[in-house]
Amino acid sequence: MSEPKAPVIELVPDVRPRPDFCERIVQSYNAGRGEWEPLADEAVATSLVPPGTGALRDFSYIAPTMPAFDPDRCVGCMECVAACPDTAILGKALDEATLDAELAKVSDSASAARARQRFTKTAKYWDTAAKRGAEPGLFGIFVDPTKCKGCGECVDVCGVHEALRMEPKNERWLAETAREMEIFRQLPDTPDSFINERSLVDIMLAGRSLLYVGGAGSCMGCGEATAIRMMLAATGFAHGPESVGIVAATGCNTVYG
Question: Is the Cβ–Cβ distance between 115 and 103 less than 8 Å?
Fold first, then answer.
């Protein structure tokens, strides 16, 4: 006798997006009725927040300043990348031939040139590899203006190196930085040869570690966000980006993962 099949239980309603939903919400607020006629989509109402949706948020207008990077002072410590609560600073190490070949594919030569200038030779990724007889790497830091809230945590941890400093924003700089960030995302992942698996700051060079996309509604400089981001990075590096989820009770961290 065959065992009975377990019943199929539908835990959530049909949460497929409706094309008119966003428009109805926006128009309701535009007409001054939003707070009196609140609308909620079914997914959020059942606490099912799609992963990574915070990546769509733009915080360029939040603060008057953001970090400027001086590659000549950078030592490749990655402390700024690890400390940033909003994934607004990312690093990458690539061998020179690969980097130049990839940047040559960028049609916007001026932006490609600026991106190239963000890469530098450091003792950690260039000198150490060269001494081992391995292919040395150039290291670069990039700033995502859409995620930076201007907290300055990166500048604080950079300390005596002073490779980062807060500078006033302007439209041209924001546009240039955003374009450089696009180029950064098009570059290949940092090879494993440049990543020390025993170092939390190093594993943040790996693409599979960048599960915290930024865009959360947490306060600028939030220490909780930094801790959650580090946890996600370590988990993603060890188990892969598809093997982790977040169950959250507090409002600000429900959109982190």
Answer: yes
